[in-house]
Design brief:
Blueprint: E1 2-6, H1 16-25, E2 30-33, H2 56-59, H3 63-72, E3 78-81, H4 91-104, E4 109-113, H5 119-124, H6 133-149, E5 155-156, E6 161-162, E7 179-182, H7 187-195, E8 199-200, H8 213-222, E9 233-235, H9 241-250, E10 254-258, H10 264-281
Parallel strand pairs: 1-2, 1-10, 2-3, 3-4, 4-7, 7-8, 9-10
Antiparallel strand pairs: 5-6
Helix pairs in contact: 1-3, 3-4, 4-6, 9-10
Length: about 280
């Protein structure tokens, strides 16, 4: 089982490139940064994590710039978006950003995506059909796959359309970096099986996530896919050997520990705690 960390990088936290170096030096497999362009003050959408939205949701750095800074000073650690809100992004620009980061990191990028929960934030980007966001997410991913995989791509969906074009660079990873869909069971899991290379639920949201893995495996089998095709990356796992053992025994491929949006002196002990839990697991 692989081990990653995630944090909201801001101007008052440990710098993203420093966090990546410290994580790499401790043997973590991956570092993940989330995304919010802004948070409207008129927000009505409930945050899935609780009643009060933490301030670092509107303080967070741009995830692609933070990951590029991390890529420049590391050699082995994988760099993930956890998640990229593709429904708020132009797919042509995003395809170029993904390919550029994959090139700069020499093939270390993991493309975690999600439909998001903040309807007001999406509306500011022109995504006014909140209920239709998952169809838009799929079409934008399909369009990006065309851009990455073809010398003269074109795409014509219901929501995304462009005529034949040329765009380089192409990603190092072929046919493209792993696309890992965030979300719960069954809908997020079904999206991952349908068009992605991994499923990324968050532990503690919507019940016992590990209990959802057996029916997920059944859906995989019905679709003719396996956990090698669509491995599970679990966010929100406790930093203790018992939690990690349960995840490993359930078939989780990667766990991602949450790190507080704090300064270096407060973050490094948390990284060390995670290392101790990994070692205790054996």
């Amino acid at each position: 089982m692989k081990f990653g960390i995630t944090m909201f990088p801001t101007d008052y936290t440990i710098a993203p490139h420093e966090l990546a170096v410290e994580a790499e030096n401790r043997g973590y497999e991956s570092v993940w940064f989330p995304e919010h362009s802004h948070i409207p003050t008129s927000r009505k959408s409930p945050w899935p994590g609780g009643p009060d939205l933490p301030k670092w949701y509107y303080d967070t750095y741009d995830q692609f710039l933070a990951l590029t800074a991390a890529a420049a000073v590391t050699k082995t650690i994988k760099l993930g978006t956890g998640v990229c809100l593709v429904v708020q992004r132009d797919p042509i620009y995003t395809a170029k950003e993904v390919a550029t980061l994959d090139r700069i990191s020499n093939g270390r990028f993991l493309f975690g995506i999600g439909g998001g929960w903040n309807a007001e934030e999406m509306a500011d980007h022109g995504t006014t059909d909140f209920k239709g966001r998952f169809k838009l997410m799929r079409e934008r991913i399909e369009a990006m796959k065309e851009i990455w995989g073809k010398s003269k791509p074109k795409y014509s969906g219901d929501l995304v359309k462009f005529d034949e074009m040329m765009q380089w660079p192409k990603p190092v990873q072929k046919p493209h970096p792993p696309i890992i869909v965030g979300g719960g069971f069954p809908h997020g899991a079904k999206r991952a099986i349908a068009y992605a290379n991994g499923w990324m639920p968050i532990g503690g949201r919507g019940g016992d996530t590990l209990a959802m893995i057996p029916p997920f495996l059944e859906l995989l089998k019905e679709a003719g896919r396996t956990t090698q095709d669509v491995p599970v990356t679990l966010f929100g796992v406790g930093m203790d050997a018992d939690s990690l053992k349960r995840a490993r025994d359930a078939g989780v491929d990667r766990v991602v520990f949450g790190v507080p949006a704090e300064s270096k002196d407060k973050v490094l002990p948390v990284l060390d705690k995670g290392v101790a839990a990994m070692r205790a697991l054996g």
